[in-house]
Design a protein that fits this description.
This protein is an alpha/beta fold. Helix content is 33%, strand content 20%. The protein contains 20 helices and 33 strands. A hairpin with a 2-residue loop joins strand 2 and strand 3.
Length: 676
């Protein structure tokens, strides 16, 4: 049986976990994150979370999904099964009732019925689940109000300060009254109130706008805590926006201070405002009624201040002196950067505790990833960003973040790659060189040994490693002993064409992983064939036979070998780049005759980035990486030339029955869709 979240003096720092559960409305369509990531069909995801060693889970017990037609017609089956699993594992749920939504379709944030409806639902939840003792009735009320009623991104698509205030008021009134209803059933229930907590920096001439943004960000916490009186810096603004004195005094009289303030901290959540518009691209421009300015991520501007989790925890502690938690620390990036961001958040929380800040937990978010957040949920492009697990597989595939989360919960040391500098601390973060000295950290930790002769492939891989902050060593041939290298080595990446035998012996001896690349040349078959990792290779060329022999040696001798197979690679240049070769021949007026073959091309950047992610995740064995359905090589060649605005008439196929070297996968589908 689970117990309430203990909030005594100086509890240990806990690890929490959370699922991205937004049910967003944009015009007449909905996006349901739990459906898109498959969590709505997998009760066992609760066991995955419990296996991390977490103390609590931000559990999506959403109004829209559970009781869209009212509590009397609620369907509790989804929550029943999952809460029972968490209870059996001793994991405390933090029930989230509305998460970036407007409630069921019969209401919305500007409707007073939103308040009464959510309160009724909260009371029903408390009665159904009396063992649940922690609640977040509404996630990020101010952020949701801004996106729904000030910027117009989400339903009901309003765009005014008055509607923004109304949306915020309704969410916070619903929070206060929902907690009152819950506490009628469970007197000890705690309010874990979350809010996005970035910070705005600016050039001196825009200090007034930055000050306004930085004061407004506290409104959810201030209103709930009964702090917004006539002396409050936002009182005048709220009155101007349409708040009555009665509205504002209501929150003072019904103060409901959170038991834990949940800070959602993102690396790009801190902004920089600059009136020097000529220094920035057009899409960054914004403004207010007085000023026009560029609004960009502070971390991207050389010389601009930015903070991160440590700074935000210190600010919240100074303002409220109440228990705090980092309730979202997700990062959409390459795997080692995700590791670094979670590790930095954990370290920031530990350092804050040493400084006397009452930090209770760090939340591994978003555990199963998220969809369409690159467009703020305003498009449906099939865009997915992985979390602790990658759901682009037959079953959610644990990434290196799972091992890090387990290490955090158990007190074990993290992998060295997690403790090195993230992109936000390296020079490549700077898109806008404005003012100030260059300040950055160099990548640290053990190195990746890249084995291969100088050339386009090695150059491309070195470029990706540099952008990712991965230390590298290079060698045309792998040394017989990895201890002979000047730097410690955590893995070896073996490029096509490099001498082979020494790499397997050295990796086997040192017990370090080996990443190697082969191709679809080891397959050939009828035109309807799509070859997966389960299929037996049938090489018909000397090149294919040589690659198969290398695969067998690597897998046989190195227990940690990862063999990545792909179709034709483009985007790296050089003679191996099919797209570059096609463009050169077309530009010279030379015809291109291709054997009729079904292929699955892959961009070199995608190939290397995904292979490195898999290597860091600890994957072994054979992986097929392809970017989507097979395409006839002639059709793809013509697409490449059209995309380069080069006449495609010189491309044709030789006669005969087409064959297939198309690759598919039964292990996962992590690459983005193909574009020439």
């Amino acid at each position: 049986m689970t117990t309430p979240l203990n909030l005594p003096d100086r509890p240990p720092l806990h690890l929490w976990a959370g699922l991205e559960p937004t049910v967003s409305r944009v015009r007449d369509w909905q996006l349901d994150q739990l459906h898109l990531t498959g969590t709505d069909e997998r009760p066992e995801d609760m066991d995955r979370l419990a296996d991390l060693g977490v103390h609590a889970v931000r559990f999506p017990l959403l109004w829209e999904r559970t009781a869209p037609q009212g509590p009397e017609r609620a369907d509790w089956r989804w929550a029943d099964v999952r809460l029972e699993r968490l209870q059996a594992r001793g994991v405390q749920p933090i029930a989230g009732l509305v998460h970036h939504g407007s409630g069921p379709r019969g209401t919305h944030l500007l409707d007073p019925g939103f308040v009464t409806g959510l309160v009724e639902y909260a009371r029903a939840v408390a009665r159904r689940y009396p063992h649940v003792t922690a609640y977040t009735p509404v996630n990020e009320p101010l952020t949701t109000a801004r996106f729904s009623a000030l910027y117009g991104h989400w339903y009901p698509h309003a765009r005014s300060e008055a509607s923004c205030w109304t949306a915020l008021k309704h969410q916070l009134q619903a929070t206060v009254l929902a907690m009152r209803a819950v506490r009628d059933v469970q007197p000890g229930a705690q309010l874990i109130q979350t809010e996005d907590l970035g910070k705005t920096f600016s050039t001196p001439d825009l200090a007034q706008q930055a000050d306004f943004e930085n004061e407004r960000r506290w409104l959810s916490f201030d209103l709930l805590s009964g702090r917004v009186t006539p002396e409050h810096r936002m009182w005048g603004h709220l009155r101007w926006a349409g708040a009555t004195e009665r509205d504002l005094w209501w929150f003072v009289e019904h103060a409901c201070p959170p038991d834990v303030l949940g800070l959602n901290v993102y690396v790009t959540g801190e902004r920089f405002l600059d009136s020097r518009l000529e220094r920035y691209p057009l899409h960054t421009r914004g403004g207010n009624s007085r000023d026009e300015y560029a609004d960009v991520e502070a971390v991207r501007v050389r010389g601009a201040a930015h903070g991160g989790p440590a700074a935000r925890l210190a600010e919240a502690h100074e303002r409220y002196a109440r228990p705090l938690a980092l309730t979202e620390v997700h990062l959409h990036c390459t795997r080692e950067e995700q590791l670094r961001w979670l590790w930095q958040a954990w370290q920031a929380a530990q350092a804050a505790r040493v400084a006397g800040v009452d930090v209770r937990a760090v939340t591994a978010w978003s555990a199963l990833g998220a969809c369409e957040w690159n467009s703020l949920l305003t498009r449906q492009d099939g865009q997915y960003e992985s979390g602790l697990w990658d759901v682009r597989a037959p079953q959610p595939r644990p990434t290196a973040l799972v091992r890090l989360a387990q290490a955090l919960s158990s007190g074990a040391p993290p992998a060295p790659i997690a403790t090195t500098a993230g992109w936000w601390a390296r020079p490549e973060r700077h898109l806008y060189p404005v003012d100030g000295p260059e300040e950055h950290e160099r990548p640290g930790g053990p190195a990746l040994l890249i084995v291969g002769a100088p050339g386009p492939l090695r150059t491309q891989l070195l470029s990706r490693c540099a952008l990712r902050g991965l230390r590298v060593q290079t060698a045309a041939r792998c040394p017989d002993h990895l201890t002979d290298l000047p730097e410690p080595t955590w893995a070896v990446a073996h490029l096509p064409g490099a001498p082979q035998g020494a790499a397997t012996r050295a990796c086997a001896e040192a017990q370090v992983p080996l990443l190697t690349f082969t191709s679809a040349d080891i397959f050939s078959g009828p035109p309807d064939s799509v070859w997966t990792e389960r299929d037996h290779p049938v090489p018909t060329s000397v090149r294919g036979q040589r690659q198969l022999g290398w695969e067998q040696a690597a897998l046989g001798e190195v227990p940690g070998a990862l063999v990545v197979r792909s179709g034709p690679t483009f985007g790296q240049g050089g003679v191996a780049d099919l797209a570059a070769r096609l463009r050169r021949r077309a530009a010279q007026g030379e015809p291109t005759v291709l054997a009729r073959r079904w292929i699955t091309p892959v961009h070199a950047q995608d190939l290397f980035d995904t292979a490195l992610d898999l290597l860091i995740d600890g994957e072994t064995g054979v992986w097929h990486l392809s970017s989507g359905p097979a395409v006839l090589n002639m059709d793809w060649a013509r697409q490449v030339l059209r995309a380069a605005h080069v006449p495609a008439g010189g491309v044709r196929c030789a006669g005969g029955t087409p064959t297939s070297q198309a690759l598919g996968s039964v292990r996962g589908w992590p690459l983005r869709p193909l574009t020439p």
